[in-house]
């Protein structure tokens, strides 16, 4: 079997690498309390035997692509929902998100004349850390919503019950999402010669118009190359990797497989797995588990991160100092990035380590408006992106990528933009189950801004 399918890894039992279970004896935060649930064992057994969602060879390729980012020769774009939903896994919605991501990538590739490594926050982004275990509304207290792989969003007792079978549903929803993503990116749609068509179906807006003129420029350039007899094979398909927060270790562990080529473990739930700001404790379960798998790993770093913490994370997660293995996703907040990021970058530089630096300009800029909605001001998002580029420029380090919560839908969740979203629109077009996302227009605007910095 391994000769026929060298990239598949289903054979070895999950028990045969004891280090993959060390995390079970460590402190672990933000987990469901469902281990005594009657369906827990059967759900885990099922996940132990399902096919991998992604293959070890693809994961290796992404790590190599990210090594190019670490060396300053490519840019890393990560985007998607804060929390995916089962009901949202429809062809229209998935394709809207993918199209928006591809459009952002085209703006960046063309603007920066640089390859872009693309990762959707999708096909697995179904579990969420919460600031409290419970939520109270009108005097009623229920367990918090922890993502659809754990419980339901509706504020009823029944919906908020933590159900391990949801992990299996999360796996299948991820599989169908990934299937559509793969056919989109390899089945002809992502052919760069169709770049003009990717705008179709979105509401027109200023960023949309700017995209249209860029797409025409690309179109002219491609026609010129075609007339010169250039070979277009490389332009016909693109690679879109998947990634999510590796929060639910029951799920991540159950989808971990041993690669028959190398005997090394890969978390096959997605290509790129990151550790959230709230679960990155140095001696805790998440850092331990993800230190054992061969995927490229990200860690979110908030404004309180110390240089020592960053260096210890490198020692634990990237002891070989392999460029592409470790990505630091900083999410400082617009008002703090210029003050807090330089010391981390310098500390890592002095250590001689090469990480990929990515900015998440979303999570440090979340506010609540009086009407109760969680939102972000587009200007704060822009300001954090600017701060990120300024800091890296001053220190001579490479600003490697951007991580955004976005959607292709015409939602009103973040305030502002060049065709400004106002709070009054929230009542009709606020759809996220968790954090507010950039809509199609705001996503393209951010891409144009980043392209300007990269082309300097
Ligand atoms: C997230 O990415 O949705 C998230 C919870 O981020 P952070 O860990 O940075 O707070
Ligand atoms: Mn979020």
From TrEMBL:
| Matches recorded under Pfam families | DAHP_synth_2 (PF01474)
Q: Which GO terms describe its biological process?
A: amino acid biosynthetic process; aromatic amino acid family biosynthetic process
Which cofactor does the UniProt annotation name? Mn(2+); Co(2+); Cd(2+)
- Origin superkingdom: Bacteria
Enzyme class, broadest EC rank: transferase
Its EC number(s): 2.5.1.54
| The family this protein is said to belong to | Belongs to the class-II DAHP synthase family.
Q: Quote the protein name from its UniProt record.
A: Phospho-2-dehydro-3-deoxyheptonate aldolase
